[in-house]
Amino acid sequence: MAKKTIDQVDVAGKKVLMRVDFNVPLDENQNISDDRRVRMALPSIKSVVDRGGQLILMSHLGRPEGKGFEAKYSLAPAAKALGEMLGKPVAMASDTVGDDAAAKVGALTDGGVVVLENLRFNSGEKKGCAEFAGKLAAMADIYCNDAFGTCHRSDASMVAVPEAMAGKPRVVGHLVAREIQYLTDAISNPGRPFVAILGGAKVSDKINVINNLLGICDAVLIGGAMAYTFSLAQGGKVGDSLVEKDKVELAKELIAKGGDKLHLPVDTHCGDDFGNIAGCNKKVVAAGEIPDGMEGLDIGPETAKLYAEIIKKAKTIVWNGPMGVFEKPPMDAGTKAVAQAIADGDSISIIGGGDSAAAVDQLGFVDQVSHVSTGGGASLAMLEGQRFAAVDLLDEA
């Protein structure tokens, strides 16, 4: 699945249309509260700029209605931040495919950068509209996809634009190349033992992933609130824990299919007030014995110890979803134990985006794992075994 990268095409004097992920969090004053997504795009951006390409950047931000400009979703703060990082002016178009975008793209010189306004201000982006995509495609000589977080979507900028640019170079940026390398290698040729750690709230979010990974992993470890649905499927007591009662039969099927591969918690750390975890009554109980009035908030210490032993022997690990309410001590203990076990081992470790990425970052383990995915939904879809049209369309290496 290796794709040609932006470094492998001649960009000098050519216009490069690059899909990036500048979906950054903004505060009420339109200041960026976390600029990581802009910083992570820098290697691909610099690859074009430093070699004399003319760079057109496009992204979405937030969830505008698709009926035109909405100030709170403008990409202007991201363009400003990028200019500061590059130490040079970055032009900001006031529209996406309108007169100002055309003028600013037309005025680009070698090494110059323009950011188009939010793609989702146009309804054609979410609809995958060929006409909208055609206007974007007409701006450039080369297409580059460096937005892994939206690779599983069929938005115009991801699929219809590269379709419209058939015959021109269509390549991946550094971020997408890295994601494809880690995630496809993990699935197709993992070092063994291959261990998957799956947490989070809902079994329904991870059904296809669990099914797929049970077929290729040596062990699948379950944590987070979804463990309580499995507990219910085994006839356990779950107190006031978050459960999906309509998924109990499915959980029974997964338990039957998983056999010795599927590992469920043996104990649970629970509390009686989610809103006041620090001050509430807490106790550790055997799995399936959560008393009424209490809810499971983390895997217990025996589970953490068992999981750590399995993790330390692993050669490949994929982790998607925390083991408990990692934001609130002491219910971060299970997630911390898993992260520590990964750090102590010598595996290739791939952390799915979203809460798992936030957990390893917050707990200080981000430098001790092999790869943190930039796209939670996309990494899950890849672990399910899905193919992405947005990637399949691009030139083979």
Automatic annotation (TrEMBL):
Highest rank taxon of the organism: Bacteria
Presence of the UniProt keyword Kinase in the record: yes
Residues that bind ATP: K206, G296, E327, G353, G354, D355, S356
Binding site for substrate: D21, F22, N23, R37, H60, L61, G62, R63, R120, R153
Any single biological process term in GO: glycolytic process
Any one of the GO CC terms: cytosol
Positions of (2R)-3-phosphoglycerate binding: R37, R120, R153
Matching Pfam families: PGK
The EC number(s) this enzyme carries: 2.7.2.3
Enzyme class: transferase
Pathway field: Carbohydrate degradation; glycolysis; pyruvate from D-glyceraldehyde 3-phosphate: step 2/5
MF (Gene Ontology): ADP binding; ATP binding; phosphoglycerate kinase activity
Reaction it catalyzes: (2R)-3-phosphoglycerate + ATP = (2R)-3-phospho-glyceroyl phosphate + ADP
Keywords tagged on the record: ATP-binding, Cytoplasm, Glycolysis, Kinase, Nucleotide-binding, Transferase
InterPro entries the UniProt entry points to: Phosphoglycerate_kinase (IPR001576), Phosphoglycerate_kinase_CS (IPR015911), Phosphoglycerate_kinase_N (IPR015824), Phosphoglycerate_kinase_sf (IPR036043)
Location relative to the cell: Cytoplasm
Recorded family membership: Belongs to the phosphoglycerate kinase family.
Quaternary structure and partners: Monomer.
Protein name: Phosphoglycerate kinase
Gene name, Swiss-Prot/TrEMBL: pgk
